[in-house]
Amino acid sequence: MRDYVIECHNLETAYAASLNRPILNGINCQIERGEFVVLLGLNGAGKSTLLRSLVGLVPLVRGEIQINSVTLTPRTLAAIRRDVGMLFQGGGLIRQLSAMENVLCGRLGAKTSWQTLFGFPKRDRLLALELLEQLGLREFADQKTSQLSGGQQQRVAIARALIQSPQILLADEPITGLDVIACQQVMQTLSELHTQHGMTIVAVLHDLGIAAEYAQRAIVVDAGRIVYDGPCDNLQAQFSQV
């Protein structure tokens, strides 16, 4: 029996201004535990909308999402988000805060409102430093993220997602705007999380070559529909541009 951690059934979503023009239009897919899957497609195809819908950032018009066999609803959203780390395009960091403080922000979802008044315990700070060290950023712990390079900022964002010990990591265009070296560093980090720690990763990408190098499976979205779902190795033969 397959161990699905993400299941999407007949997803349809649209923005308020265009309810008669679905962004997602009947999406069905399942992702198994430990898979590295990339979402590909042209700008506006719906791939980022699909990714964001998995954690309730884009509401559904109809359909159902299950994460670890739990149906996504307003009541289950907080618990589901504790199991899912999210990387936003550009990192989504608070630029005025240090790398260390940004990483610690990833622990806020595990705290009650009154606990935040007392700051972060020593164990959280030690874990944040350990994650920064693992990602080659220990020396930048006290530096404002606004002073870091794009690649360094994205790795801080990865550390922020990892501090909540997620089972699933969603990455929305994690290498957009980065130079070649920074792209390699970020993708290698994601690859190591997958191969060494067995983490389930779903990433929105634009580059077929990078997708084929790091992921086993690709889902290609076009006009809100899935037009390909299969091995990355077969992509080049079927799609010249996505």
UniProtKB/TrEMBL annotation:
Entry-linked InterPro entries: AAA+_ATPase, ABC_transporter-like_ATP-bd, ABC_transporter-like_CS, ABC_transpr_LolD-like, P-loop_NTPase
Keywords: ATP-binding, Nucleotide-binding
All copies of domain ABC transporter, residue ranges: 6-242
Name this polypeptide is given: ATP-binding cassette domain-containing protein
SMART domains: AAA (SM00382)
A Pfam family of this chain: ABC_tran
GO-annotated cellular components: plasma membrane
Alphabetical list of SUPFAM superfamilies matching this protein: P-loop containing nucleoside triphosphate hydrolases (SSF52540)
Source taxonomy: Bacteria, Bacillati, Cyanobacteriota, Cyanophyceae, Nostocales
Keyword hit for DNA repair: no
GO molecular function per UniProt: ATP binding; ATP hydrolysis activity; transmembrane transporter activity
Presence of the UniProt keyword Nucleotide-binding in the record: yes
